[in-house]
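Q: Got a minute? One more chain.
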Amino acid sequence: MITTTEKPPVRVSPRQEKLRVRRQQIPFPVGKLLFYTLGILAAFVVLISVAAYLMGASLPADHAFSRSSIISKPPEAVWAVISDFAAQPSWRPQLRSMDRLPNQDGLEAWQVTGSNGESMTMLVVESVPPLRLVNLYRNTQASGDTSWIFEIQPIAQDSQVTLTERTRVEKPLSRFFLRYVSGSRSADQYLAALAKKFGDPAVIQ
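A: Always. Here it is, folded:
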């Protein structure tokens, strides 16, 4: 016959019982959860930044693209509008003002102030009415000097306006944002405003 002996119950002191009950009542530490969450978010931001940097470093420093639109006016009419810099804030929502500056290096100079209050200097480096206009923008934040090249080609009674942007971007992160975030937004906004100025639909290619 096998006999079993029962273990005597473990005696718990009143102080230990209070600690046990208190532990059961303590909620999940919110501070620790917040700390872990912020740590994960910080690691995610660092990972995204590194990925953007590496992608930007793989892109060429020289950046260029072209966008075009059809305007239902002859080149002379289009030229009169795009070369009248002082009047451009009246039809370009992205501009606050354009103020004439003294010539720089023998070139016509303007101070361009955007709707966000940021300013840069624009030089007219080439002017061939009514077919070609080249403006050079200095002091841009994301890149070095940026050229906007306008080419106007007559098509029957209309005009095809092609805007080419050329710039050199040294910083990899700026290359990434210029390529994948801002892209051709500024050029598209200009051509859309120009089309609206002439009462045309903003069809940009």
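A: The radius of gyration is 32 Å.
Q: Perfect, thanks.
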